[in-house]
């Protein structure tokens, strides 16, 4: 490869957010058979008992945030600018959970502030919600390089954090944004097309009670496929109706 070509390739890597090498030498995968392990097997092999114990000991969101900031077990942290913990009202009875931070979220330290977040805000406004009346976070607190989809092992490493996060907020309703959040937290291999629009019961080792959960398309997907907005509108109407039935307000607890 000529020097100019190599320089242009490095520029492209930088633009795509690829800023972390995982080995000293390139790996020739030609002829190899890559087998993706099931999520459950990765979860059981990656999460340590010590981490579970530390997460369980967190009694407040501030303690959980500090634990996550001190955690060095996920390589995504090395390439991210900062931890993206949450936004909105932690006293709200409605909690939204997405996939992972993007470039703008990584820059500001807040989830859903880029183009997809702006679309989400507009959609929520149609049912009378804003950042003051809901709480929002992601499965992963660090941005994957180049906004790529997180791996099963990365999700598994961060799973105890989001589970405890949900338990500490103790929402009455959960809204999962996108397939990664829905499949991870509902522990299913079903795709988002099948999952969306159907209420399911959610619980984890840290929650004291079962929480009704609804999945819908991620707003980033809607930017690429605007024709699906009508389905998300139906999902949001379900959230609105459920909120009214349970008299959900930010100050009702």
Outline the structure in words.
The chain is built from twelve helices and six strands. The protein has helices at 3-15, 39-46, 49-57, 61-70, 76-79, 103-108, 115-125, 152-169, 179-186, 192-195, 219-224, 229-245; strands spanning 87-88, 94-98, 135-138, 173-177, 200-202, 211-216. A hairpin with an 8-residue loop joins strand 5 and strand 6 (211-216). It is globular, with a radius of gyration of 19 Å. The N and C termini lie far apart (63 Å). The relative contact order is 0.15.
Number of strands: 6
Query: Averaged pLDDT, please?
Result: 86
Which term fits the overall shape?
Answer: globular
Global Rg: 19 Å
**Can you tell me the residue ranges where pLDDT is under 50 for at least 5 consecutive residues?**
32-45, 248-253
Lateral arrangement of strands in the main beta sheet: 1-3-2-4-6-5
Strand-residue proportion: 5-15%
Could you give a quick summary of the protein structure above?
The chain has 253 residues and is of the alpha/beta class. It is 45% helix and 10% strand. The protein has helices at residues 3-15, 39-46, 49-57, 61-70, 76-79, 103-108, 115-125, 152-169, 179-186, 192-195, 219-224, 229-245; strands at 87-88, 94-98, 135-138, 173-177, 200-202, 211-216.
